[in-house]
């Protein structure tokens, strides 16, 4: 705690409007995200080597830029397909048991959870979630589950950024920025694309063409540091090499080639819609399974293995068919460098089946990212489409591999509504800007055609719609204020027992200024509420004064609030139901009455905060 206090003192010495504070925080997040990428990569390889390789004899191919710690170790175990099925099922089981018993929030692909925390949870992520996500995802990927690596690594950075902001007692706005910067750093490191990582963090929050502008500079610094740190951990020959190597120097030979790229965009849009629909349809099916949630990832992993092995035997035991398992980057590497050697049938089959294996692995509750599989699916669809168009127009389409690269960008741009970051990512993956024009065309068209497709369902349309920016366009002086800041728990409240007659109630009203009365039972628990107006309706019928009880005139379905409720929400409730007071109850037990919150005192608090905000603004202008 002493270190956090010193760091907080250092940060407060900077002007909050300068980049000095964000330089310190961004560097810190970048370092953690970079180390997180290294640790996760190593952990995944350890699990893979001691399970898939040592037991089943299966080692899936990697990209040119990836490094294996075990490349010099010779494994003499022959490939055993049915042992692979056992390994992948046990991996899903272990992942499910860990996640659902420690941190259920870590299920699935994780990016949606970070987006949701940004918009709806003031940027708060529980510290245990990134740790559980890392272990569970390493088990899922290392044992052959179809998933990506970006989800857990992004959550490591996002979780750490949120945790540091909380420890330093920074504002909710700063916490959100640090969360997003951590996401960008994770993406930048694992995909060797630091600029794309920074833009991804700013763009992925919204489904429309909108950016979280405050995030870009901190995310850029974090992403570059994480990328550099991760690359420095690699052997000299692989340092700062693009993920798919240095040989992807494709070009556009004619402006007329934009015509086949337009056709590719339509194919990619249809593929993206199919991917998202299948993914969430599978997720809904698994939620209906009458078994405990912790066992669902095992079922999904088993089915993933069955599908993968079925494809393996369908293609005469071609090991490339098993790219539908794990990351699948091996077949994507070959598709981007020599698509003709893979062929259209295998590329389309891998892309189609990868949709199902990813849906089974992650849709069942398994842990892993959806970005990586999207790259494989889009790349394979693009390379296959490029080969097909080459047969139609051999003089126009001369490099079908380039269509694989553009396919990676277009597919994800449509599915995730992130066109700008994917355009930059292709340039960073290839190391040049030769494909910038067709990539921009495909990403833009896919983005426009896939407006109803949402891979990340926690995205908001724009900053105007996000709760994170409530008050940016209309000053929100109540942001961060709670009911506990206004109501007085010591104020004496007259309680009415449910058995009290109307006659007794009428006589007791004469001696109090109270207008709203909570009704309680024998145990003192609130069961309803009534106002003076509710009593007034009975005043002209004295025959029922002795018969009517408090339980007869009370409102049993009443609105209530807790001390932790947001005052913005409470103000909306006051307006919606037009009452002057609301019961304040315990957050854990709605029957325990703590006090009454009055509209008049809430408006008074609002005016005080508004005046305070105006004075602060005047001081800044002076």
TrEMBL record:
Regarding the membrane, this protein is recorded as:
Multi-pass membrane protein
PANTHER family per record: CHLORIDE CHANNEL PROTEIN CLC-E
Sorted alphabetically, the Gene Ontology cellular component annotations on this record are:
chloride channel complex
One Pfam match: Voltage_CLC
Q: InterPro entries per the record?
A: CBS_dom, CBS_dom_sf, Cl-channel_core, ClC, ClC-type_chloride_channel
Q: Which UniProt keywords are listed?
A: CBS domain, Chloride, Chloride channel, Ion channel, Ion transport, Membrane, Transmembrane, Transmembrane helix, Transport
Q: Quick one: where is this thing mainly located?
A: membrane
Write out the transmembrane intervals.
20-40, 79-103, 177-202, 258-276, 297-315, 335-356, 368-390, 402-426, 433-454
Q: What GO MF annotations does this protein's record show?
A: chloride channel activity
> Which intervals hold domain CBS?
489-547, 554-615
What's the name of the protein?
A: Chloride channel protein
Query: Where is the protein localized?
Result: Membrane
């Amino acid at each position: 705690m002493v270190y956090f206090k010193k760091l907080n003192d250092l940060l407060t010495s900077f002007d909050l409007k300068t980049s000095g504070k964000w330089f310190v925080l961004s560097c810190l997040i970048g370092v953690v995200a970079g180390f997180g990428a290294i640790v996760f990569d190593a952990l995944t390889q350890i699990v893979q080597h001691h399970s898939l390789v040592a037991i089943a004899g299966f080692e899936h191919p990697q990209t040119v830029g990836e490094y294996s710690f075990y490349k010099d170790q010779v494994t003499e175990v022959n490939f055993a397909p049915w042992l692979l099925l056992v390994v992948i099922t046990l991996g899903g089981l272990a992942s499910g048991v860990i996640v659902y018993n420690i941190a259920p929030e870590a299920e699935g692909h994780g990016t949606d959870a970070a987006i949701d925390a940004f918009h709806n949870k003031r940027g708060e992520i529980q510290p245990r979630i990134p740790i559980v996500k890392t272990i569970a995802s390493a088990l899922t990927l290392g044992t052959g589950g179809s998933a990506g690596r970006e989800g857990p690594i992004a959550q490591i950075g996002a979780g750490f950024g949120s945790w540091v902001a909380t420890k330093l007692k920074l504002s909710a706005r700063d916490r959100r920025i640090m969360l997003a910067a951590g996401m960008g750093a994770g993406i930048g490191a694992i995909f060797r694309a630091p600029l794309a990582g920074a833009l991804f963090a700013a763009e992925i929050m919204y489904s429309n063409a909108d950016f979280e502008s405050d995030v870009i500079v901190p995310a850029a610094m974090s992403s570059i540091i994480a990328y550099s740190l991760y690359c420095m951990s690699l052997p000299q020959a692989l340092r700062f090499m693009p993920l798919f190597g240095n040989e992807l120097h494709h070009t556009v030979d004619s402006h007329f080639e934009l015509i086949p790229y337009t056709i590719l965009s339509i194919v990619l849009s249809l593929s993206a819609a199919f991917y998202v629909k299948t993914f969430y349809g599978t997720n809904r099916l698994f939620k209906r399974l009458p078994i405990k949630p912790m066992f669902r990832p095992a079922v999904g992993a088993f089915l993933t293995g069955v599908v993968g092995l079925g494809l393996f035997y369908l293609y005469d035991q071609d090991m490339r068919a098993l790219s539908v398992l794990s990351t699948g980057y091996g077949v994507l590497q070959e598709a981007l460098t020599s698509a003709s050697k893979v062929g259209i049938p295998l590329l389309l089959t891998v892309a189609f089946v990868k949709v199902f294996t990813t849906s089974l692995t992650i849709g069942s509750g398994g842990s892993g990212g959806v970005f990586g599989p999207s790259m494989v699916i889009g790349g394979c669809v693009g390379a296959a489409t490029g080969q097909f168009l080459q047969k139609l127009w051999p003089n126009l389409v001369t490099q079908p591999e380039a269509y694989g690269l553009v396919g990676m960008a277009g597919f994800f741009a449509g599915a995730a509504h992130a066109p700008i970051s994917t355009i930059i990512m292709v340039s960073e993956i290839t190391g040049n800007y030769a494909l910038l024009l067709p990539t921009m065309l495909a990403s833009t068209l896919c983005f426009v055609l896939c407006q109803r497709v949402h891979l990340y369902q926690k995205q908001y349309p724009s900053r105007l719609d996000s709760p994170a920016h409530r008050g940016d366009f209309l000053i929100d002086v109540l942001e961060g204020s709670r009911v506990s800041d206004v109501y007085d728990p010591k104020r004496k409240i007259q309680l009415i027992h449910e058995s009290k007659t109307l006659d007794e109630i009428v006589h007791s009203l004469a001696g109090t200024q109270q207008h709203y009365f909570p009704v309680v039972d024998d145990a003192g628990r609130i069961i309803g509420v009534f106002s003076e107006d509710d009593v007034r309706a009975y005043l002209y019928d004295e025959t029922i004064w002795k018969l009517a009880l408090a339980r007869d005139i009370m409102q049993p379905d009443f609105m209530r609030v807790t001390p932790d409720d947001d005052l913005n929400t409470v103000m909306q409730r006051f307006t919606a139901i037009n009452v002057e007071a609301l019961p304040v109850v315990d957050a854990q037990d709605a029957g325990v009455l703590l006090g009454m919150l009055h509209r008049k005192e809430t408006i008074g608090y609002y005016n005080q905060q508004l005046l305070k905000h105006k004075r602060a603004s005047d001081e800044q202008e002076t």
